[in-house]
Amino acid sequence: MVTPEQLADRALALADECGRPDLHRRLTQARGRHAAPGVRVLVLGEPKQGKSSLVNALTGVPVCPVADDVATLVPTVVRNGDAPRATLVRAVGPPSGEPGADVATERVPVPVETVAARVTGPGAERIVQAEVELPRRLLAGGLELVDTAGVGGLGVAHALTTLDLLPTADAVVFVSDASQEFTAPEMTLLEQATALCPTVVCVLTKTDACPDWRRIADLDRGHLAARGLDAPLFAVSSTLALLAVQARDRELHEESGLAPLVTHLQDEVAGRAATLARRSLVHDLTAVTGHLSLALRSELRSLEDPASREALLAELDEARTAVDEQRRRSSRWQQVLGDGVTDLMADIDHDLRDRSRVVVREAEEVIAARDPGPAWPEITAWLDQRIAAAVADSYVWAEQRSRWLAEQVVEQVTRDGGGSVPALEVGAAGDALDTLVDLPGMDDGSLTLRERTLIGLRGSYTGVLMTGLVTSLAGLAIINPFSLAAGVVLGRKAYNDDAKQRRQRRESEARTAVRRHLDEVVFQVGKHLKDRLRTVQRTLRDLVTDTTDETARTLADAVKAAQRAAKEATADHEARIRVLRARLDRLDRLVADVARLDRTPVPTP
């Protein structure tokens, strides 16, 4: 059976013989995409739900950090390799002050057994990513597991970094432990993942520690059905799976529930990704062979049938008109793209500001209800989670609108006769909030005994003195029971007034800090999302322009070939006809093999 790589090589050879470097470049890119078998699976969820333990259980090696007091902050990518090896991608040099700017990195090889300690120990804040290669049957089909930072409890930057990986994933494994059913934030995160990634799998972990996990699994399936989320749910015990690997106990491995999840990942995730990769390659091969066939058949017709020269000249005029019309029509999709980008940028800015105003109002209500001094750590943690949720919603919305805009542009190109456009691969933008400054600290309002005494004495001084002077007219001393009682009352009032003023000052400082922080979030996230939109714009522009140029080049080559055939000597006709027929024969066989490949099912990894 002919492999996809062999078909691509045959098409490359024909493109070279026909003098089409543009088609050669397109085929080279398509072959590179098909040759990279990576199927990225993002392990996603809130902190401390068992994501790292699940990755360790799937690979059989503790490459991800697992501890009660340790949370994942650095993504760990686990892929197939000939031998166990690990690499840390670490940022070098001073951090850039430009949000979204490229960060210089270096790759540091480390022993596999030290990865978990290095991504949580000193210097972990400079590590961008950990990469591990293991010779595992699960990973041999191109499966790539990515252990991510938890979303919902580690601040805005970590949440956005994880969500930024979603568009690059072929599938998402959403992890939640069996101690409770899906929470509202988890359901929101699930909907965001479903909106950005076509394949989502839910995994219920820690079944060995939760005897009531079956009831929780039924409740979770009910939540998924109520939200209209078509995601299968698997219940597993990572602890039992690791013990089964260590003890080589097949029964214990089956009891862990990991086998059905592994089967699903191999069949539905890796198999589906391979099908999509083949479909994309077939699409490119079909388009390229169509371009080559048009030029070859036009020249061969003019050589074999000189009597039809008048008709051929008329067709040449139509071809020239078609080229000009194609160029003219390109302004339509460019207008759709430009207007869409302008509208979307304005919508993104409005959406972010609207969400930030909602968060500010909620924060002011919290500050008014509680003294922000002693409650500031709790308010800061709540604000981080609330901002993370708002940023995630805005991120998902912008991603969906970007895809909608891409569909509109492609539809306009197709309507104008521009042919099909290759599949879009926008990719992931950089982190948005790396340079975001944390909320400043706040005075907790606590006073020492000395400070409280001084405040009371300052307030009681006037009361003691005035009351003592009045009572001295009656022959009493300045310091007497009446003046002391007045001093105590006024001192207590002064202390309460001072406490009230200090709380009002703390509330004012807290409101100012929240507003400044939200302004910074809007600025950084807005820049990040607009950069992503510009990436979409450039990607669409380049893809559509390349497609239009290919069509115009094909028509121009057909015109030149027909003109050349009309001017060539009769003696050269026979030799040229033999060359063209040989190329067309190879091209027809290639087209037939591509069609046969498209009908052949992709083997399951």
TrEMBL record:
One Pfam family from the record: Dynamin_N
Every Dynamin N-terminal domain range: 41-206
Domain of life (superkingdom): Bacteria
Protein name, UniProt field: Dynamin family protein
